[in-house]
Amino acid sequence: MHREAAGLTGKLLLATPSLTDPDFHRTVVLLLNHDDDGALGVVVNRPLDVDVDVVLPSWQPFTTSPGKLFQGGPVALDSALGLVAVPGDRPDPVGVRRVFGSVGLGSVGLVDLDTPPEVVVPELAGLRIFAGYAGWSAAQLEAEIAEGAWFVLPAEARDAFSDAPQRLWADVLRRQGGDLALVASFPADPALN
C-alpha cells in the first residue's frame, strides 16, 4: 500500500477534472473504510429524484433534508445504506460505529434499517440513505490517486449531511484555498472554456 494513501477512512475523495467516468464525474466520496483489502465509500453529493419513502417509508420523516435517496455509488444499487450523525460526545447508539467525528455507520456498515426508526432516531442528529456504494479492490484506489483521478481532502462532519449537496464538490474545493480553490471554477466540459 502506498504510504500517502494509507489510512484514508474518514477522508473525502473529490474527483479531479481529469476523471471522466460518468459514475464519478465531479463526485465527493466519503471513505467509510480503507485498508489493505481495498476501500468503500459513498458519494455524498448525488441526491436522486426519489424520496426515501419509496424504498423505506418508515424512515422518510427522519431523513436529513432534502429527504431524498442518494446514489452512493455504482456498486449494489439495490441495497440501502444508512449514514448517521451522532450529536456531541454522546456514546454511540446501539449498532452504530463512528467513522470519524460525529459521522457513524451501523456495526455491519449501515444503520439497521430493519429496526423501527423510533428506537434509533432519538440518538441521531442526521440521517441519509444511500442506494449503493463506491468500492475499490486492494491497491485500486491507490493507483487511481497516483494517476491523478482523485484529490484526497479532509472531511468535515457536515459534508455528509450538506443541505446543498449539488454544490458540495465546488464548496469543498473552495474551502481548501490556493490552487484547489481555483479548480472549483473549472467548467464541467473543459472544451467549452
Explain what the structure shows.
- With about 190 residues, the chain is of the alpha+beta class.
- It has a single domain (about 5-170), classed as VC0467-like, CATH 3.40.1740.
- The protein has four helices and ten strands; from the N terminus they run ββββββββαβαβαα.
- It has helices at about 115-120, 140-145, 170-175, 180-185; strands at about 10-15, 30-35, 40-45, 45-50, 70, 75-85, 95-100, 105, 125-135, 150-155.
- The longest helix has 9 residues, at about 170-175.
- The protein is globular.
Mean pLDDT: 84
DSSP summary, beta strand count = 10
Overall shape: it is globular
CATH topology: VC0467-like
What can be said about the biggest beta sheet? 10 strands, mixed
Secondary structure class reads alpha+beta
Termini separation comes to 37 Å
- Named CATH architecture: 3-Layer(aba) Sandwich
Radius of gyration: 16 Å
Topology as a string of helices (H) and strands (E): EEEEEEEEHEHEHH
The CATH class assignment is: Alpha Beta
CATH superfamily name? VC0467-like
Q: Could you list the spans in which at least 5 consecutive residues all have pLDDT below 50?
A: 1-6
Number of separate structural domains: 1
Distinct helical segment count: 4
